[in-house]
Amino acid sequence: MEIKKIMRVLVNTTIEVLWTPGHAGLQGNDKADELAKEGAKDALQMPEESRIVTIQEVKEASHKACLSKWQSRWDNSSTGRRYYELVPTVNHKRRLDLPNKTAFNLILQLQTGYSTLNAHRHKIGQNVSPECKCGSPETTEHFLLECSNYTQQREILARSIQRLCGIPSLDMQTLLGTEDIPNIDGSRDRIQTELATYIETTARFETPAASSTQ
Ligand SMILES: [Zn+2]
């Protein structure tokens, strides 16, 4: 149709339309042609209803292809490896507001390592000592699992986790993973809520203005 339209405009011009065998003689191309023709034959022999592709199927296929590309990038990337350990699969819908947005964001910071804990601030060049008030480097692990300033809060957290999923001692994967604990539906949401309580009661991430009002 496009060519016909152009032909109508070109008056006083002789137009010859020729077929050019573009593939002829090139190694592999003839074979490809042959296979393409065979494939086309198969398509025509398919029952009518299976030849119809719904928009839903196209969407699903494209979603699947995107996820698979994203996953292989995530598997092979050299950045975000810390977060990768906690969240190896990309096909994961997370609730971004559990138990509330502020708490979720703090948990996300701990998962990625990009938090305002001193060890990270020091690492990215901010003019702070990497140390915690207790003297050890203030890493995520230190804040969650070790620091003696939060022993009491941590005991409460550990008891809740044990009650929820029977895991006797705290570890990073249990606290910061994003999947449910195997065979315990809904455990991730509940752990996240308990972790939020820990973070809140340590008051470690409160802004100076907020803590001075206490
Ligand atoms: Zn400490």
Explain what you see.
Helix content is 57%, strand content 0%. It is mostly helical. Among the domains are: 53-86; 101-206, no CATH class. The termini are far apart. Bound molecules: zinc ion (ZN).
List the helices and strands and how they pair.
Layout: H1 2-9, H2 29-45, H3 48-51, H4 55-76, H5 81-86, H6 101-112, H7 118-123, H8 140-146, H9 151-165, H10 172-176, H11 187-202, H12 208-212
Zinc ion binds at residues 132-134, 136, 142, 147, 149.
Q: Which sheet architecture does the biggest sheet show?
A: none
Helix fraction, binned, reads 55-70%
Alpha-beta content class: mainly alpha
Helix count, per DSSP? 12
Ions, cofactors, ligands: which are bound?
Answer: zinc ion
What is the typical, i.e. mean, pLDDT?
A: 84
What is the succession of H and E elements? HHHHHHHHHHHH
Count the strands? 0
Q: How far is it from the N-terminal to the C-terminal residue, by CA?
A: 76 Å
Radius of gyration: 30 Å
- Poorly predicted spans: 210-214
Assign an overall shape: elongated
Proportion of residues in extended strands: under 5%
